[in-house]
Automatic annotation (TrEMBL):
This is methylmalonate-semialdehyde dehydrogenase (CoA acylating). Keywords: NAD, Oxidoreductase. It is an enzyme of class 1 (oxidoreductase). It comes from the Bacteria.
Length: 496
C-alpha cells in the first residue's frame, strides 16, 4: 500500500482522515512515492487552535531559549543535509548538487535566526520630557501561515518558520502538494531539536485548504511563495481582510552582457545560471540581453548547452533533472512551439531529448532562442524550464530600457569590466536584486530577499532584518517614573 504523507498536529505526526488525496510522483520515473491527503476543514481548524495555544506559552519563552532551539536545529540540519537532499531529489527531481544547495540555503536562514536576540532589540530615547523615557518593545504577532511552492522544497519552508518561530510566533505550514516529503523530515528534526508542541503545525492541500487558512480569523499574517496568479489571489484576499501579507511570485530575470565583459566568465556562468535546476528557479536567468556585437556569443553558448543533458538525480553526469510534472513539461514544450511560430530562431530545441533508462521522465533538453522580441510569449511568460531567450540591445541605455519595461523585478545581472557601466546599471535598473559579474544574486540571509514589481507583493521581504519586522509588531512605551510626594508626613516613595 502506498504510504500517506502525515500532517503534524500538536507535536504528533498523524494521518489525515481525508478521502481527497493526490499522488506524489517521482518526475524521472513516474513512480508513485506516496499520497498526500488534502486536510479536512476540521483538521485545519484543529491545527490553528493548537498553534494558538502553543503561541500563548511560546511568546513568553525567553528569547535566548528561542535562539538555542535554532542553534540545535541548525546543527541537526547540517548533520542530515544529505539525507534531506536525497528526499527532495526524489519528489522534486533536482540533481544531488542542487538538492544539497537547496538544503544549505535553508540552513543559512536558521543560522540567521540564531541571532534573534540582537535582531529583536528595540529603541530607547531617555528623557523625551523631564523624567519621561520612550522605548519600543518588539513583540510576536500570533499564528502565522506559510504556503510554499514546489521548486525549493527545503529552502523556502526554511525561509519562513525559523524566522517566525524565533520571533516568538507559531506557524501553520502548507507545503507544496507536489513535493511534501522533505518538509516532513525538516519538521521531524525541528521536533528533535526541542520545538514545543504545536509551534509549527503542518497541513496539506491545494486551493481549498489555502483559502480556508488565509480566511481563518486566528491567522494574522501570511507568507506565500509561488506563481503570480496565486500570489495575487493570496495577497488580495489577505490584505482585503486587513491582514499582514508577503507574497513572492514569478520572475523573468535578465542578464546584460556588455561588449567589455570577459567572455570566458560569461560563458562559464551562463550554463548553470540558465538551465540549472531545469530552469525551475525564481532567480534563473531566462533572458540574456547581448549588447552590441556580443550577440555573436549566442552561438557559442548554444554549443556549450548542447554538450550538457538532464538526468536522474543521482547521475553525476546530469547537469539538471526533469521538470516537476508532465503538465509542466507539456506547458514548456508548448511555449517552445509558440516561440517558433512567432518567429524566433530556435538554435537549440530540447524537446526530443531521450534519457536512457528513463523513458517516462519529464525531460526537456537545453533550448536556446535568438531573434526574440519583447512581444513574443517566450519573452513575456515565465517559462520555468531550461529555455534561454537571447535579445539584442544597441547600448547600455537600450538594455536598461528592456529590463525596466519588464513587469517582473526579482533578479538581474550585468557582466562588464567597467565600473562605470556597473554602477550605472545598479543605480538605474528597476529590479530588486542585482548581480555585478554574478549571475544569480541571491543575498545571504543577513540581507533580505528583495524582489520588486510583479515578483513581490507586500512591503517586508523574506529573511534579513525585514523578516523580523514582518513577523513582529512594535509597541512603543512612554513612561514617567518620577519621585512622587505622598501626603503621609515626611515620606516620599519612588514608584516601582
Ligand atoms: P503555485 O502558485 O502553483 O503553488 C504555490 C502554492 O500555492 C502551493 O502550496 C499550492 O498548493 C498553492 N496553490 C496553488 N494553486 C492555488 C490556488 N488557486 N489558490 C490557493 N493556493 C494555491 O507555484 P508553484 O508552481 O508551486 O511554484 C513555482 C512558482 O513559484 C514560479 O512562478 C516561481 O517563480 C515562483 N517562485 C517565486 C519565488 C520568489 O522568491 N519570488 C521563489 C520560488 C518560487
Amino acid at each position: 500500500m502506498t504510504a500517506q504523507v502525515p500532517m503534524l498536529i500538536d507535536g504528533e505526526f498523524i494521518q489525515s482522515a481525508s478521502a481527497d488525496k493526490q499522488d506524489v510522483v517521482n518526475p524521472a520515473t513516474q513512480a508513485v512515492i506516496a499520497q498526500v491527503p488534502f486536510s479536512t476543514p476540521e483538521e485545519i481548524d484543529a491545527a490553528v487552535a493548537g498553534a494558538k495555544a502553543a503561541f500563548m506559552e511560546w511568546r513568553n519563552t525567553p528569547v535566548p531559549q528561542r535562539a538555542r532551539l535554532m542553534l540545535r536545529y541548525q546543527q541537526l540540519l547540517k548533520e542530515h543535509q544529505k539525507e534531506i537532499a536525497e528526499i527532495l531529489a526524489e519528489d522534486n527531481g533536482k540533481n544531488l548538487e542542487d538538492a544539497m544547495g537547496d538544503v544549505w540555503r535553508g540552513i543559512e536562514v536558521v543560522e540567521h535566526a540564531c541571532n534573534v536576540p540582537s535582531l529583536l532589540m528595540g529603541e530607547t530615547v531617555e528623557n523625551v520630557a523631564n523624567g519621561v523615557d520612550t522605548y519600543s518593545l518588539v513583540q510576536p504577532l500570533g499564528v502565522t501561515l506559510g504556503i510554499t511552492p514546489f521548486n525549493f522544497p527545503a529552502m523556502i519552508p526554511l525561509w519562513m518558520y525559523p524566522m517566525a518561530v524565533a520571533c516568538g510566533n507559531a506557524m501553520i505550514l502548507k507545503p507544496s502538494e507536489q513535493v511534501p516529503m522533505a518538509t516532513v523530515r525538516l519538521l521531524e528534526l525541528f521536533q528533535q531539536a526541542g520545538a514545543p508542541k504545536g509551534i509549527v503545525q503542518m497541513v496539506h492541500g491545494g486551493k481549498a485548504q489555502v483559502d480556508q487558512l488565509i480566511n481563518h480569523p486566528d491567522i494574522v499574517a501570511t507568507s506565500f511563495v509561488g506563481s503570480v496568479p496565486v500570489a495575487e489571489h493570496v495577497y488580495r484576499s489577505t490584505t482585503n481582510l486587513l491582514k499582514r501579507s508577503q507574497c513572492f511570485a514569478g520572475a523573468k530575470n535578465h542578464m546584460v552582457v556588455m561588449p567589455d565583459a570577459d567572455k570566458e566568465t560569461v560563458m562559464n556562468t551562463l550554463v548553470g545560471a540558465t538551465v540549472g535546476a531545469a530552469g525551475q528557479r525564481c532567480m534563473a536567468i531566462s533572458v540574456i540581453v547581448f549588447v552590441g556585437e556580443t550577440i555573436e556569443w549566442a552561438g557559442e553558448l548554444a554549443e556549450r548547452l548542447k554538450s550538457i543533458r538532464p538526468g536522474v538525480w543521482n547521475d553525476p553526469d546530469a547537469a539538471y533533472g526533469p521538470l516537476v510534472s508532465k503538465a509542466a513539461k507539456a506547458r514548456v514544450e508548448q511555449l517552445i512551439q509558440s516561440g517558433i511560430d512567432q518567429g524566433a530562431t530556435c538554435v537549440l530545441d530540447g524537446r526530443d531529448i531521450r534519457i536512457e533508462g528513463y523513458p517516462d521522465g519529464n525531460w526537456v533538453g537545453p533550448t536556446l532562442f535568438t531573434d526574440v522580441n519583447t512581444e513574443m510569449d517566450i519573452y513575456r511568460e515565465e517559462i520555468f524550464g531550461p529555455v534561454v531567450c537571447c535579445v539584442s540591445a544597441d547600448s547600455l541605455d537600450h538594455a536598461l530600457q528592456i529590463v525596466n519595461d519588464s513587469p517582473y523585478g526579482n533578479g538581474t545581472s550585468i557582466f562588464t569590466t567597467s565600473g562605470v557601466n556597473a554602477r550605472r546599471y545598479q543605480h538605474d535598473v528597476q529590479v530588486g536584486q542585482v548581480g555585478v559579474n554574478i549571475p544569480i544574486p541571491v543575498p545571504l540571509p543577513f540581507f533580505s530577499f528583495t524582489g520588486w514589481k510583479k515578483s513581490f507583493m507586500g512591503d517586508l521581504h523574506a529573511y534579513g532584518k525585514q523578516a523580523v519586522r514582518f513577523y513582529t509588531e512594535t509597541k512603543t512605551v512612554t513612561a514617567a517614573w518620577k519621585e512622587t510626594k505622598v501626603s503621609a508626613p515626611n515620606m516620599s516613595i519612588a514608584l516601582k
